[in-house]
Design goal:
Strand content: 35-45%
CATH class: Alpha Beta
Strand order of the largest sheet: 2-3-1-4
Radius of gyration: 14 Å
Helix content: 25-40%
Number of helices: 3
Number of strands: 4
Number of domains: 1
Shape: globular
Largest sheet: 4 strands, antiparallel
Distance between the termini: 22 Å
Low-confidence stretches: none
């Protein structure tokens, strides 16, 4: 397994998706995440998150940096289809730890070092 530490902005409309749906998907599909900012403009919402994503190793990747090309698509596949994201900032790519706990302190340490 490969572990990606990153940040992104997620955009959604409250007519289509609820924040609880997004939280459910993020909790189930990411190793860890933290909502850094939530901006509401009418029915449009923007959430800035930092996250830790574990993904399977790919045969076509020869080095850890090669996984950067696949990280955005992997992240997009893990959020609801009506949720948009325009970019993903990759902060770190490394082999995944076998044991990981969902602790707020750990994700702050991972993302604040960059």
């Amino acid at each position: 397994m490969i572990q990606i530490v990153g940040r992104t902005d997620i955009y959604f409309n409250t007519e289509d998706t609820f924040l609880s749906d997004i939280n459910y998907h993020l909790t189930m599909s990411l190793e860890e995440y933290e909502i850094l900012e939530h901006v509401i403009n009418g029915k449009e919402n923007k959430i800035k998150i930092s996250f830790v994503l574990n993904m399977k190793e790919k045969v076509e990747c020869r080095s850890l940096l090669d996984y950067n090309s696949y990280a955005y698509d992997e992240f997009k596949n893990r959020i609801p289809s009506k949720v948009r994201t325009t970019y993903m900032q990759t902060l770190d790519i490394r082999p995944a730890n076998k044991k990981s706990k969902n602790t707020k302190k750990r994700i702050q340490t991972l993302t604040n070092t960059y």
